[in-house]
Amino acid sequence: PHSRDRAVSGKSPGFLFAPEDNPHRLHPFLRLPKGVRRGYALLPPLLKVLSDQGRRNWQSESPRLQPDSRALRYMKRLYKMSATKEGIPKANKSHLYNTVRLFTPCSECKHRHRELMKGDIHSVDLLFNLDRVTALEHLLKSVLLYSFDTSVPISSPATCVCHLSIKEYDFSSQVCPSASHSVAFSLHFEFRKRRWVEIDVTSFLQPLIATNRRNIHMAVNFTCLVGDPQHNTEQEGSLNVALVPPSLLLYLNDTSEQAYHRWNSLRHRRKSPVRPRQRDTPLADLVDDLGKENAQSKRASRQRR
Amino acid sequence: EEGLKEAPAAAPRNLSDYFKQFLFPQNECELHNFRLSFSQLKWDKWIIAPHRYSPQYCKGDCPRVVGHRYGSPVHTMVQNIIYEKLDASVPRPSCVPAEYSPLSVLTIEPDGSIVYKEYEDMIATKCTCR
After folding, report:
1. Contact A100 B116 (CB under 8 A)
2. What's the pLDDT at A1?
3. pLDDT in tens, A143-187
4. Which of A62, A176, A291, B80 has the most crowded CB, counting CB atoms within 10 A?
5. Which residues of chain A have a CB within 8 Å of the CB of B103?
6. How far apart are CA B7 and CA B2, in angstroms?
7. Cβ(A61)–Cβ(A18) under 8 Å?
8. ipTM for the complex?
9. Which pLDDT tens digit goes with each residue over A50-96?
10. How many H helices and E strands in chain A?
11. Strand A196-200 relative to strand B47-49, pairing
12. Distances from the Cα of A173 to the Cαs of A176, A179, A207, A242, in angstroms?
């Protein structure tokens, strides 16, 4: 039922694409049309495996950048929470996203401002490259994800303040851009229980991602003081926890045809009525209706008479 | 009885063949299990989860008179009639998937970022003739 090229471009799921291959070496029939290629600038390995040339080339795929092991652990946990053992998305309606992307910073500049604030300050400039986010992936939520190594037991809760500012590129200093607009978050949590801290930066990043900004440069100051200011306990001073630069987590709704649209299938399930009468074939329905029409027209002519 | 009367001269073996056509068709259109692991395709370097994937597939004969058991549209019957009475080059209806379920996939992107995505129509759950 699919036209030939549509079958090539339309229904192949994104994850079946090989990233770095050179499409030109394949048979023209197997190459995606140029327009489509921009969105899927990669060729699906499914097609590659099926083409003879592909089979020979397959082993020569160039290596990928390996993700941070912490990030990998976090995403595996997210997968377990979102999908069954068979890999089918869980039917809980609470999450509307059908795509979650985790980016680790690709470059950072370290600053130390001891004289500025009390406590142990981790200030770092981060650059996130979001090229992998497609135009059909719409942002629902974005989170800065801090991971703590909890090997050092910390008995009391800590209060952390996170200063976040977006950087514009300052061409005079090639290495570290200057700040443009910033926001401060204050968090209060207990280390004992947390390995991950999520800082919701949705309202902060939404305008940037909506305008297709794919390089996000931000400076993050993260200060933690041990103790609980709310209960007026004396703050015991700075927190000596090694802080890994945060990753950026984007919860997205992919509106492309190949993505699973939860609300669509729920509606579909609700909509499908049970047929009032079991007929052998819809043809019988048709015949039945035709018969009815005849009867009605006969009755009308009789009444006229 | 009539049927029997009509074919009294058949040898016993033919008789069983004759009766067989009234029995439930043996290799009827139905869903078949198929399970693969991404390591078989050497994709496990970048597909982190799931480890196994059961796409399933549909296989079997489509009976001449396709009833509502397959949920087939009327067109399926019409196609059978075209094949038998008008043009044998038109293929008979085929046994194909009618419903699917989605699949969640966790992959490593070329730039080292990680993506969790839910894909539509990745596991066949029901077959039909059309």
Report:
1. yes
2. 35
3. 988 877 655 555 566 677 777 877 665 555 555 555 566 666 666
4. B80
5. 87-89
6. 9
7. yes
8. 0.75
9. 454 444 444 445 566 777 888 899 999 999 999 998 899 987 656 78
10. 8, 10
11. unpaired
12. 6, 12, 26, 28
Contact (CB, 8 A) for B56 and B125: yes
- % chain A with pLDDT above 90: 12
Q: How many CB atoms lie within 10 A of CB B123?
A: 18
Would you state the structure tokens that stand for residue A160, as one six-digit string?
Answer: 């952390």
Cβ partners under 8 Å of residue A98, min gap 6:
A89, A252, A253, A254, A259, A260, A261, A262, B117, B118
Calculate ∠ Cα A144-A252-A161, nearest 5°. 15
Assigned token pair, A251: 């919860």
Cross-strand bridge partners of residue A139: A252
What is the DSSP secondary-structure string of A181-223? EEEEEEEEE-GGG-SEEEEE-HHHHHHHHHTT--EEEEEEEEE
Contact A67 B52 (CB under 8 A): no
